[in-house]
Structures are given as C-alpha cells and as structure tokens.
Amino acid sequence: MCGIIGYVGDKKDPRIGLEALKRLEYRGYDSAGMAYLNAKTQKVNSYKAVGKISFLEHKLGDKKLEGSPFIYHTRWATHGEPTQKNAHPHADCTGDFYVAHNGIIENHARLRDWLQKNGHSFRSDTDTEVLSHLIEHNFKGDLFGAVRASLNKVIGTYGIAVVSSRAPQELIAARLGSPLLIGVGKGEHFVASDPAGILAHTKKVVYMEDGEVARITADDIHILNRDQIKEPEVEEIEWDLEEAQKGGYPHFMLKEIMEQPISIRETFRGRLVAKEGNVKLGGLELVQEKLKGIKKIHIIACGTAYYAGLVGKYMFEEYAGIPTEIDLGSEFRYRKPVLDKKETAVLCISQSGETADTIASLKEAKNKGILTLGIVNVVGSTIARETDAGVYNHAGPEIGVASTKAFTSQLTALAMLTVFLGRQREMSHTMGTRIVEELEELPKLVESILKDNAKIKKLAKKYKNYPNALYLGRKYNYPIALEGALKLKEISYIHAEGYAGGEMKHGPIALIDKNFPTFAIMPHDSVYEKMASNMEEIKARKGPMVIMTTKGNKGAKLLSADIIYIPKTLEMLTPILSVIPLQLFAYYVGVMRGYNVDKPRNLAKSVTVE
Hints:
- Helix content is about 35%, strand content about 25%.
- By secondary structure, the chain is of the alpha/beta class.
- The longest helix is centred in the C-terminal third of the chain and has 22 residues, at about 430-450.
- The protein starts with a strand and ends in an 18-residue tail after the last helix.
C-alpha cells in the first residue's frame, strides 16, 4: 500500500522526488521519508517525518539538496507504529545502505534474531529494516548481487528501491507480490509503485514482474528474472498527468464521482455493436471458443470490487444463464474450492490489478488449470498480465481511496460481459440489442443524477449527525446497499450496515427507532412491492427513512418525505445509477463532518499486502 519513488540520472535535484511522492500520498500517509546520495560528500543523507508528506517537506525546508540517486517513501503502517524511527527508508548499521519497501517480510523476526547474533543493531520496529542489514551483511563490492543474495533469504512480499554510497551510480529495484515499475527517460530513470508518481516526467515504463531484480543507472536497465537476463519491455501509459489532477474540484473523490458519465462511456467506447445485439471485447478473443464451453463462473474480488461481483452474479445467471459463485479473495485463497478445469472460469475484479488476496487466489486457480479472466483498470498490472484474458475498464486514474468511478465502470464491464456470454448461449438478438442500447444511454442518465446533487447535499446535512445507518436493497440493489454502507463507513466514520431487504426481520429491525435512519434503495422494479412492505414496517416503528426510487413513482411519498429520484433503465443496469446518490451522500456527510475524504484514516488505495 505504501508509495515508493526512486531516481537515478543527470538531474541532481532530489526535490523532484518530493513532488512525485505527493502524487502517491493516497497510498499511505502515516509517515514519509527520503534518502539521497549527497553529490559533495558521496554519503547518503536521509530525512523523515511522521504524518503527511507536507510534514517532510516542511522538515526539508530550504536545505540545499544536491545529488542522485535518491529514494522516497510514504508509509501505510503494518509492522511498527507510525513514528519517525519506523518511517522509511531504513538504513543498515553503517548508514551506507538505504531501503524503501512496500510489502511484508513474514520471517523478519527470525532474520532479525540471526542478524543481531551476527553483530547488527536495529533502530526500528519494522520488518523492513532486516533488508538493510541483510544487504550490508551480503555486500561484497556488488550492490546488485548483495540485494539478490538478501532477497533469497526473505519470505513474504516486497517492492523495494535501494541506494548506497558503495554504488553511487546505481539504483536497485526488486519486486515480489508488490507493484513496481521503472520509468524510462533520457539520461535518467525512475522507479515507482504507481505510474501516477512519474507521469510528469515520462509515460514510458517497464513493468517489473515477480521475482525480478533490476540494476538501474542513468543510461541503462539490467533486469534478472530469477537467474535469466530479461530484455526490458517498454510500454506507454495511456493516460496523462492532467487526468490525475483535481481539475478544480475540492477533492479527488468529488471529481471522480462527477467523471462517471465520461468513465462509463470510455468503458463501453468502441465495444457496443447495437446492430448485432452484441459487444466486441477484444481482450477475450483468444479464449472465445473456450468460453463457449464454460458452465460455471467463479468471481473473486475484495472490497467494493466484491460488491460489483455480486451484481455480476445476478447478471450472469439471469441473462447469460451461467451459474455463478463469488468469493472474497481473502477467503478463496485459504479454502479448497471445487473447480472443474474444463467447465469453470475464474473472473478476478480489481481496480488496481494489484490486490494481494485477489492475486493469490488467481495464482491458485491457475495452478489448478482453470481459465482465468480479469476486469482491471490499470494496464500492465499484475492481474492484467497474469490472467489468460480480460477486459480493461479504461476509466482513467482513480486517486481517491474510496472507489467511485471504478465501481460503476466495473458494473458496465460486467454488463458487457453478460451480453458477450449470453449471446454465445441463448440470449436473443432482441434482448442483446436492448441491453446494448440501454448501456449507451447510461452516461446521459448519470449526468441527470449528478445535476440533482444539491438535494443530496441537503439530505446529507440533515442526516450527518446520526451515529448509525441501515442500508436496504433487494436483488440487483442488495449489493448496492452493501456498497452504500461501506462508503458511509469509509468516508464519514459513521457505523452503517447494508442488508438484503428480506433479511431485515431476521435481526436488524430490532435496531430501528427514531434515532436510527434507513436508506432504502427501491427503484420501481420486480421487487419494488417487497421493498415497500419492508419500509412500511420501518415507518411503523418511527424510523427515519431516505428512499431512492424511480422518477414518476408517486407512491414513495406515502412512506417518506426524503426521496431521491433516479431515471428508469433496465433492472440489471439500475445499480449503475442507484449507487451514485449514495456516493454523493457519503461524500457530503464526510466533508460536513470535517474529514479528509480523499484519505480516510487507516485506509490505503490499493491493498497490496495481506
């Protein structure tokens, strides 16, 4: 989850890294630090600060920094509290070797004990520091070799950047289970845990693979994949720095909510074939014949992507006729699922494509010979590379920690995949055409919801001080109830629970009174009457209610005065519309309660460790 920036090249201004690191602050903001090779002394100098990157910037003040290479790190704490001694980069006993690390060293306790017995002294409580001492211990005049020898003793995950006064022209990078890429420039190279950090300098990158170690100089990249020399494959990032900026909005979260008409359109752009009642998904062409024989789909995801997968389950089963199961990545990887390698496909959903539990589950499926598919937003990510085939979201960068536009993009991709699979089976041309045409209308419908955000803001003001909330939905909107509750928890720190409407009488109704509001997601669909009955039960117990329903539904006014209207669309596509007011509601409540909604406490954008 942490952010890493590294640089080696002709420029001798380490503050370049500070600006780059600011673009990765969403990956961790417990502490920040840097280390650089001082051009005059040829020694490594380091500065660290607890808290946001601005605290590190203040600490650097007007100090004259001159030198290269350098590394920066912004931390999301795992081992050790967020203190200055635990901030990265971490040094060895001599102060000659510095390491910035993202991941977890599982055998750090045993390694620390061994190193201490061999005369090494530790300053921090982190697992990372063992790497610095191991590199010192293994150094025999070759930094690259010392890093490789040290990593051979490590059990766990890592994305690391290493600088040393013993190798003044080199920056070493290595990856296993934690994302890392190399930015390619003229007379300079970068290392980053996320492309957003280096877009101001280059769009040309080399995505590192698991097991790779790279020796990087100003003019060259030398990569070993385990013991094999690998020629660097340079790719170009498809989005630019401007897309990653706030664009005049007070928060990334609001910008990304407002971008959804665009991101949804980009997700289906060039993929809808209305005349054929079908979709064209180029990423699936190589496995198209295999997919025809699939009789079961197993979806794997975490967090918000898991809720997208729940919606996908309804879509696949109702319209494509394929039995579908869904698992949390953190559960799938530790159980023994029964998978038929001839008739089952595993579909992994992840915005970043770097979610650790989902990747581990993907690898387990691949080991069993299962066809693997992915829905990811980041080109070149681990899941994008490891799956047999997949669909890119093309939603553009999502910086806010709480996922918004990536979620609706995932739902759009799932709807297209439903048509793709359904038309291979028994879905009629008429039904395929109808879904495709309704998909094309979604951006306009989303725009109409966003224009009504003043009413949602007003409701947020009314309900912002309640300590609890219940979100209810049925069928396609049950997962949206879960997502709405998650957003409120993430952004406002209000306790909220999402439930299937029919489950309310099985426990949650005991909580209902005048101080416990309910957010009911009840468009005028096949289960509207059932939801209306649930709301009558809450009304009878004097529970406050916000009702979201379809435009033109006058009956909702009999239940509550607080109503949000959404446009009508196909029932299977309703979640793409119904989630947007919930995103706005959570955003405004969080802002009104005085919180930084882009960087919720204890959370990071991409969960790249267990």
